[in-house]
Design goal:
Layout (H helix, E strand, L loop, with lengths): L2 H32 L2 H29 L9 H32 L6
Helix pairs in contact: 1-2, 1-3, 2-3
GO molecular function, one term: metal ion binding
Protein name: PTS lactose/cellobiose transporter subunit IIA
Cofactor: Mg(2+)
Length: 112
């Protein structure tokens, strides 16, 4: 893997994580504003697919580094890891938030 490839992979990782984050927020909005839970689930699945791509890149970078510092720790790499971590956390929280909105929507109005 060349330096150019590594930089491209880092940018792709940032893009995938950012897209996943955006999809999760869209899913939460669908659940909250429209009560469209099937669409929210589709958006969450798309977010998870984007995260899967980001994880694959991260795994490739880690395996290339072999714990020996072969890949320089740049600001871009730290930024990519931060984006990925936040996207993973938001995906987990998004699942819970959507579930809460579903419970609220399914509760009889007199018990709200």
């Amino acid at each position: 893997m060349t330096q150019q490839t590594t930089e491209t992979d880092i940018i792709t990782l940032i893009t995938c994580a950012g897209s996943a984050r955006s999809l999760v927020f869209q899913a939460i909005r669908e659940a909250r504003e429209n009560r469209d839970f099937p669409h929210a689930e589709i958006l969450m699945q798309q977010a998870k697919e984007m995260l899967s791509g980001a994880h694959w890149i991260q795994t490739q970078l880690i395996s290339l580094d072999e714990g020996e510092g072969k890949i320089p720790v740049t600001l871009a790499l730290v930024h990519a890891q931060d984006h990925l971590m936040n996207a993973v956390l938001l995906t987990e929280l998004g699942t819970e938030i959507i579930a809460l909105h579903r419970q609220i929507a399914e509760k009889p109005k007199d018990k709200r």
